[in-house]
Amino acid sequence: MERGKIASFAAEFKPALFKTFENGYGKNDFRKDLFAGLTVGVVALPLAMAFSIGAGGTPAQGLYTAIVGGLVIAFLGGSFHQVSGPTGAFVVIIADIIARQGMDGLFIATIIAGLILIAMGLSGLGSLIKFIPYPVTVGFTTGIGVIIFAGQLKDLFGMQIPSLSPEFFGKIGQYVEYAPTSSLWASLFGVGTVVLIFAIRKLAPKVPAAVTAVVLVTAIAFFAGIPVETVGSRYGAIPKGFPVPSLPAFSLEKIRSVFPSAVTIAMLAAIESLLSAVVADGMTGTRHSASAELMGQGLGNIASVLFGGIPATGAIARTATNIKAGARSPVAAIVHALVLLLFTLFLGPAAEAIPLAALAGVLVVVAWDMSELPRFLGMRRAPKSDMAVMLVTFVLTVVVDLTAAVQVGVLLAVFLFIKRMADTTSIVPGTADTAGSAGFAKTDAGALNRLMTPGQDGGSASDDPADLRYKKVPAGCEVFEINGPFFFGVADMLQDALKAVERPPVVFVLRMRHVPAIDASGLNALASFRKRCKRNHTTLILSEMREQPGQALAKMGLDAEIGSDNLTESFDTALTRASALLASRQSGPSGEHKTRQGVGA
After folding, report:
1. DSSP string computed for 350-417
2. Three-class HEC string of 548-596
C-alpha cells in the first residue's frame, strides 16, 4: 500500500516529457512536433519582443525569456502541449517593478517567485488555484488589458514623449499633451498592423495573423525607406551571442521591498500556466500534472532571469497554436525555443528592422483579447456583490497596481464567501403551536425573525420523524436548532438565541444534528453561551451532535463542563433529560428558585 502511495506521489512530479518517451515516441510524432514547433516559434517571435518592450525591457530580454524559460519548462513541466514565455499578463507587473525597483529588483522578485512556485508544486497547492474567484480573474484580466492598451499609444502613434509616466492617468495626460507630436507614418503602420491582424483572422484564420502583419508592415517600411522608429533604432543591435548566466545583487532590504510583487508574479504565473494547461487538456484529451507544471514554471523562471530574461508562464494563445499545428508532446515546445535561439543567433538584423508601431499594434490586439469585454459586461447579470468585487479589482488594477488589486479582490471575495456561508447557517426556534407542547414563553418576534432563515419553517422537514411537531416538549423547556456549519461568521447568533426568549427557561435544548463542523470561534461562542445559561440558572443540553463537533468539544474540555448527562445522542433522550430536570422543581419546597439552582450547573 505504501509503495503504491510513493509511486503515485512520484508520478505527480514526473515531467510530461519523460512520460512521453516512456509511452513510446516515434518518427511520425517527431515530424508533427517539428512542424508545430516551427509554427509556434515564428508566432512567438514578435510576441516575445513586444511583451518585453511593453514591460520596459529590451527585445533581447523577451527572446531570452522565451528561449531559456520556454526550454526549461518544456523539459520539466507537467503539461504535454504547454508553450511558455513572456505573456501580456506580466506586462503591467514587470513595468511597475522596473519603475520602482529597477531591473535588479525584477530579477530578485522573479527568483523569489520561482521558489514560491516550486514550493506550491511540492505542497500540492496547484489544485487550490482553481478557487481564485471568477469575479477577481475577470476584473484583473480586463484591467490588465486596459493598461496594456494605454501603454502602447505612444509607439502606436509615434508620439515624442520624453519619458512615459508609469501611472495610468499620468499616461492619459501625456497623450493629450503630446498628441500634436504624433507621426503620420507611425500611426499608419500601427493602426494598419491592428487592421491587418483582424482582417487575416477573419479571412484566413489558419494563417498566423500577428507574424504575417508584422512581416508585411516591416517589409513596406524597409523597402520603401520610410522614416519610422524601429527596434534597432531605439534599442540598438540584438546581441548575436547569448548572455553569461549571473545572479543579481541580493540584499535583505531589496527582498523585503519586492516580496509582495514576487507573490503576485508567482500567483499569476500559477493561475495562467494551469489555466493554459487545462485548456490544452480540453483540446487534446490529455491530463497535465499541476505539481510538475508548477515545479517546471518555478525552475524556468529562475533560469530565465539568470540569463537576463523576465518572468515567463504558460501562454494560452501559443499553446493553442501549438496544438492546432499538430503538436504531440513537449518536444514541440522545445523546438519552438530552439527556433527562437537560431533566430537570435543568426537573424537579429531582421528583427531590428521591425517598426515599433507594428509591435505596439500587436500588443493593442493582445490587450483587446485579454480584456474579454463580453465576459466583463456579462457580469452585470451576476449578483451585485460579485459585480462589486469585479469592479473593485478592475479599478485597483488600472489605478493602483495588480498586486493590490489581486490582494483586495481575493479578500473581498473571501468576505463575500463568509457572508454567504453565514446566510446558509441559522439558529431556529421551535414554534409556539408545537404539537403536544405546553407552549413556549413569549419571545421577541423581531429577534426571532432575525434568527430565522427565509424559507425555513423551524429547520425540519414535515415528514421527518424527528420534527419538533411530533414531539412532546414540556413547559419550561426551550428548543433551538443550528442548521449549517457553526463558524466564526455566525458565532454571535447563539447569543441572540437566548436574548430572543423573553424569560430564561429552566432547560435549553440545542439541537446540532445539522452542524457538520464547528471551529474555535463556534466553540468559544458555545462556552460563553453555557456560562450565560449558568448565570440564568438554565441547564444547557446539546442534542444529536455529529462527529467533528463532538471531537472538537472534547478537545476543548467543553463536554466535561456541560456534563455527560447533558450531551445526548437523540432528541428523545434530550427531552427525557429535560423532563427529569423540570420534574425536580416539583420536589423541593422552595419551588422554582430551588429548581433553578439545582439544574443550573
Report:
1. HHHTSBHHHHHHHHHHHHHHHH-HHHHHHGGGS-HHHHHHHHHHHHHHHHT-HHHHHHHHHHHHHHHH
2. HHHHHHHHHCHHHHHCHHHEECCHHHHHHHHHHHHHHHHHCCCCHHHHH
Give Cβ neighbours of residue 163 (< 8 Å, ≥ 6 apart): none
d(CA 320, CA 316): 6
* Cut 0.85: pTM above it: no
Q: Are 390 and 445 in contact (CB under 8 A)?
A: no
The 10s digit of each residue's pLDDT in 345-362 is 888 788 788 898 998 888
Q: Whose grid coordinates read 492619459?
A: 172
Q: Which residues pair with 510 in a beta bridge?
A: 480, 542
Q: What is the pLDDT of residues 309-351, one digit of tens each?
A: 999 999 877 887 788 778 899 999 999 999 999 888 888 788 7
- Residues 195 and 150: their CA atoms lie apart, in Å, by 18
Cβ atoms of 420 and 457 closer than 8 Å? no
State the CB neighbour count (10 A cutoff) for residue 327. Answer: 30
Q: List the chain domain ranges.
A: 30-372, 426-599
Buried b (16+ CB within 10 A) or exposed e, 429-441: bbbeebeebeebe
What residues contact residue 463 under an 8 Å CB cut-off, 6+ apart? none
| CATH for the stretch 426-599 | 3.30.750.24
